[in-house]
Specification:
alpha/beta, seven-stranded mixed beta sheet, four-stranded antiparallel beta sheet, globular
Length: 294
């Protein structure tokens, strides 16, 4: 019977929809499933609606994936969850592997799933991330923006604070590029095991990162060279209020996870906080920046 199937026997499927006359519908649907940790998706048009069926690993209960999507939905007005179901684990196992090919990021980096370890690294410095439930596979534009900023500003011996660490991808990149120490926090306790697994995949000693469950900068007393956050605008705005105290005098704060439409609001907040932009990047409709406090 289907109810007796193990997690390896099926995938979760969640169907989302938007009004077809929304010019951003397809892009928004693609963004939300990417941000939520989907391992694959397929579009369909149904009676004036733009519909996307997203697939998720069944190692987590469907209630987890619905909760993740519901948390993201307010950022995409008009998007709705229509249905959920189980899908037999047949072709989707192959699709899962194919969904994460080696990908060049930044100038000299390549993000790779662990099953590509023996394959071509595109002539770049590889770092390995297991695509799973934690946000941050490296394939989303906001993550790529943050990685590019870290690649530009990290120096050998630096200390990095990574807020909303998810898979750990940002502090892992920094450590592989020569940072000496990382402090990473996330409000989701399930990401700790994911980040530790990704550290091991990249041959990074576990004692190089103080990895804990925590909200924003609460309880962190270390002064860092780099503060990085790939989170949504509201927590980014909260983080900005205390970011100065977490950085050394010449430290760099990297903020990503925001849209181009949110850029003016965040720039105003940066100015009010006494920070100046030193770099900014846009990819599709996603935006991020690096700033120093003056």
């Amino acid at each position: 019977m289907e109810d007796n199937k193990t997690a390896a026997d099926f995938w979760w499927s969640v169907e989302l929809e938007a009004e077809a006359d929304n010019p951003a519908a397809e892009e928004w649907l693609a963004d939300i499933v990417d941000m939520s940790g989907s391992v694959g998706a397929e579009f369909a048009d149904k009676a004036g609606k733009k519909t996307l069926r997203a697939f998720y690993v069944s190692s987590r209960d469907i209630t987890h994936w619905i909760s993740v999507l519901e948390e993201l939905l307010p950022n995409f007005p008009g998007l709705r969850i229509c249905s959920e179901s189980k899908v037999e684990n047949k072709q989707w196992q192959e699709n899962f592997l194919d969904a994460f090919p080696p990908l060049a990021v930044g100038v000299n980096l390549a993000v790779m799933a662990p099953w590509h370890k023996d394959n071509d690294n595109l002539g770049k410095i590889p770092f390995y991330i297991y695509p799973s439930s934690a946000f941050g596979t490296g394939y989303h534009e906001s993550t790529q923006i943050a990685i590019s900023m870290i690649e530009r500003f990290v120096k050998i011996g630096d200390t990095i604070i990574d807020i909303g660490t998810g898979s750990g991808i940002l502090f892992i990149v920094a450590l592989k590029l020569g940072a000496a120490r990382a402090i990473a926090r996330d409000i989701d306790p399930t990401v700790v095991a994911e980040a530790l697994r990704n550290m091991t995949l990249n041959d990074i000693p576990l004692n190089k990162c103080d990895l804990r469950v925590g909200a924003l900068l609460g309880g962190i007393e270390v002064k860092a060279d780099i503060l990085a956050a790939n989170i949504l605008i509201e927590p980014n705005l909260l983080l900005l209020k205390s970011a100065r105290e977490a950085l050394k005098p010449s430290g760099v704060a990297i903020f990503s996870g925001m849209t181009e439409n949110e850029r003016p609001r965040f720039l105003d907040a940066l100015s009010e906080a006494g920070a100046e932009i030193i770099s900014e990047l846009t990819s599709k409709n996603w935006w991020g920046c690096a700033a120093r406090f003056v």
